[in-house]
């Protein structure tokens, strides 16, 4: 079967023409999928009957099954646990922001990064997601809401720069006007710091926002909580990030999870400020560690977090403390999947 979901307009036109149908039908199919959320070929009534029959026999639009759906009490966060065609499961999150609907997508089933604060790495990496499986996460929320998706953050399970080609292809498709028509400047990709692929991304010509999962102000702490720190030291990671900024002129965000007793001291705040102050227009996003059943890590007090923020800001750096959305529904990476697996084993 030919998977149509995830194909851009040029790819879809080639499939349609090779099958003997007019090229313009490809745009109609994309309109049905991405604008009307119609996934049954027989329901695509603008297409001739013989074409609908051919599509039904030879093609597929693989929409994942929703295993679990959770909505936060305030209605602003919705999380889906999805079952893929091979039985693997991934999570995706919708966040209703003041500027519109933002979808956080996963790029892999599981994760190989081994960060001690993240539930998605618990079982290791199973496989990369295909382009259509990344796009389907956004498509599902669009079909549920019947509302425009404003922005995309690639911050779900997995390291997107380890699944480079499929992730970039998905972002390019989400940008196409025939699909979701989401501007690149409304897309953010988060990476733990796969140095060689940060350089590749800088040359792609797509001005997305790069968010570095920094989480430590020095190599010693980073190696302790992020095993990738043993492969890429901060000097090399930050050099790649600076190149990305210089080539794209896009503001860089540094993600920094606050863990009490590990990386949140006054000294750490000064180290962090010194580390990032030379990045023009950068933003430091402080993230209180999310309550997580598989680890014993805790966020600092509100007073400690405010003091940490103020010290970093004193270096002339823009600093925010991430709004905690979705704690009540375990919206952090991998939590819902772990919880579901535990229930199944009981």
TrEMBL record:
Residues 97-328 form the Radical SAM core domain. Its cofactor is [4Fe-4S] cluster. It is found in: Cytoplasm. Its main location: cytoplasm. It is an enzyme of class 2 (transferase). The keyword Cell cycle does not apply. Binds 1 [4Fe-4S] cluster. The cluster is coordinated with 3 cysteines and an exchangeable S-adenosyl-L-methionine. Keywords: 4Fe-4S, Cytoplasm, Disulfide bond, Iron, Iron-sulfur, Metal-binding, Methyltransferase, rRNA processing, S-adenosyl-L-methionine, Transferase, tRNA processing. The active site is at 91 (proton acceptor), 333 (s-methylcysteine intermediate). GO terms for biological process: rRNA base methylation; tRNA methylation. InterPro entries: Aldolase_TIM, Methyltransferase_A, RlmN_N, RNA_MTrfase_RlmN, rRNA_lsu_MTrfase_RlmN/Cfr, rSAM, rSAM_sf. GO terms for molecular function: 4 iron, 4 sulfur cluster binding; metal ion binding; rRNA (adenine(2503)-C2-)-methyltransferase activity; rRNA binding; tRNA (adenine(37)-C2)-methyltransferase activity; tRNA binding. Its EC number is 2.1.1.192. It catalyses: adenosine(2503) in 23S rRNA + 2 reduced [2Fe-2S]-[ferredoxin] + 2 S-adenosyl-L-methionine = 2-methyladenosine(2503) in 23S rRNA + 5'-deoxyadenosine + L-methionine + 2 oxidized [2Fe-2S]-[ferredoxin] + S-adenosyl-L-homocysteine; adenosine(37) in tRNA + 2 reduced [2Fe-2S]-[ferredoxin] + 2 S-adenosyl-L-methionine = 2-methyladenosine(37) in tRNA + 5'-deoxyadenosine + L-methionine + 2 oxidized [2Fe-2S]-[ferredoxin] + S-adenosyl-L-homocysteine. GO terms for cellular component: cytoplasm. [4Fe-4S] cluster binds at residues 111, 115, 118. S-adenosyl-L-methionine binds at residues 158-159, 190, 213-215, 290. Belongs to the radical SAM superfamily. RlmN family. Specifically methylates position 2 of adenine 2503 in 23S rRNA and position 2 of adenine 37 in tRNAs. Reaction proceeds by a ping-pong mechanism involving intermediate methylation of a conserved cysteine residue. NCBIfam families: rRNA_mod_RlmN. This is Probable dual-specificity RNA methyltransferase RlmN.
